Amino acid sequence: MLPPAMQFDQQVGDLGISASDHIVIYDTSGIGSACRVYWTFRAFGHSNVSVLDGGLPKWEAEGRLTVSGDTVVEPKVYNSQINPTIVANFKDIRTATTVHNCQVIDARPAGRYYGSDPEPRAGLSSGHIPESRSLPFPMVMDPVTKTFLEPEKLRELCEHRGISLDRPIICTCGSGITASILYLAFERAGVTDLSVYDGSWTEYASIPGVLISKVNI
């Protein structure tokens, strides 16, 4: 879940980041947790932010310069402004398909979506939000380079899976991490009405009496 704005501002400022900086985010897996950091900055109103496609593995494979040691930074004052349009909640999920003609796209592995495999969190049922569609996050990446699919290839994939890139989309997963990968993939493909369900399946499936769909396969 997103941290409180005061905590975010303090920790980001301690890193020497100001609201006017262009931030480039990378990780050691290609495009994994970097996407969650990207979406978090976007959610707190920082628009000038990018993800290094392929991350550190691709950077090193191309023979680019790396350094070691600590980075010395000068703390700055950071003031965020939350962008609520890209942060979805349980109420948004409940009305997404019935009221707003919005698609809910699930990034979890297919087995957890269908309900045939257990959730990694004890006591949490597997299955999926009714009317949601499955798009496991590895499908939007090149399996070798761990970079994003080109937008035209993503569009072809989505058409095959019954997902329209011309309608609003809410991305969800287990806890809001891999949903952020879908978020950035869809954003690159030109989707503008786009958000992440921050609580995702961990919140949804914990709510008493909530509807959970399962498929026998």
TrEMBL record:
Keyword tags: Repeat, Transferase
Record-annotated Rhodanese domain positions: 3-68, 98-213
Source species, domain of life: Eukaryota
Signal peptide, first to last residue: none
UniProt xrefs under Pfam families: Rhodanese
UniProt GO molecular function: thiosulfate-cyanide sulfurtransferase activity
Residues forming coiled coils: none
GO CC term, one of those recorded: mitochondrion
Protein name per Swiss-Prot or TrEMBL: Rhodanese domain-containing protein
Species for this entry: Batrachochytrium dendrobatidis (strain JEL423)
Upper classification of the organism: Eukaryota, Fungi, Fungi incertae sedis, Chytridiomycota, Chytridiomycota incertae sedis
